[in-house]
Amino acid sequence: MQNHFEIDRRAALAGLAAVPLSACAARMPGPGASEATPAESLDAIAMRGGRRFGSAIASTPGNADAGSVQNPRYTAVIEAECGLVVPENEMKWQAIRPDAQSYDFSRMDSIVAWAQASGQEVRGHTLLWHRPQWFPDWLNNYDFGASPASEAARLLTDHIRTVTNRYRGTISSYDVVNEAIDHDRNAPIETSLSRAMGSPEAVIDLAFHTAREQLPEGQLVYNDYMSWEPAHLKHCADVLRLLEGMVSRGVPVDALGIQSHIEMFEIDPATGVGPYAERQWRAFLDEVTGMGLRLLITEFDVKDAALPGDIATRDRKVADYTRRYFDLMLEYDAHLDDILAWGMVDQYNWLQYFGNAARPDGLEIRGAPYSSDYQAKPIRDAIAQSLASA
Question: Which segment of the chain is annotated as a signal peptide (predicted)?
Fold first, then answer.
């Protein structure tokens, strides 16, 4: 199921990777970051393997104290380390669909404008977050009228066409559908759209077929948050079943986006880091790639709740856990495309504000490549080492 997007882009990156390393060195960062940024960027190292390294970024007009394009200190780290960005929230329905009739692209446009000025590629996230709690209220309560299936299809296709038309020529890889699994049912989740159209599968299939019509050569991704912890095994099985159904129905899905919010909520005494189900995780990846699907790491960070508060100890264990994960993922080098962190600086990483990830001691989570004072951390070096060894 390999498409022209993947073939052409990896060939182009291979050409870049052939350039002498001095020419691929990171761009010089701005004030406040220069002393903390290594000489060779993570993106330059990743390009040697035919992929890009990137990060989520936000747009917060009027607020420069954020992991956003309005924060020059933060963008300096992105420019120095990354070649690819993805909007954190700015393309989601809540951000761009204030109501059924209108769109607001102002925040997303500011990310694209900054990225183009900074020489960054852009990924799209997401054309449909298939969960009611992340639908805008108007969509959860929408009156689909006398022909609900037709009206739901019209809403969805209009949304996908409008977004992809706006960023045509700029964005060619999209998370078409995000997080569609209902854990209680072990099946795709029901939403207002799926009830109108008859099933969640009808919505998911239409989203991908519409995206393919819009992007014949693009990369269409199903994105979800499973990773290699034992607690995720059931979710992995549900995602695998979803993908198998899509492939069997001829749905044009090209890749699985693995969010990779890897977790340490307890310590494995045998390894000194969080437990991970390596054998089962490999089996899952083998099944996915065996269907002809490619892989992306789309939202990487580390939850460190089980680790001691001592920063040196914690950073070392986070780096060790990260290196183990990336070494395994990069064994799938022939199938693995781009790698993105879900933010580059601890202070602005979403885990700081996500209750289930909180540390019992109340300390800041240290799961991003850079600390809140913009210093590169051991986790950053672990990623670089894995990329260089691939």
Answer: 1-25
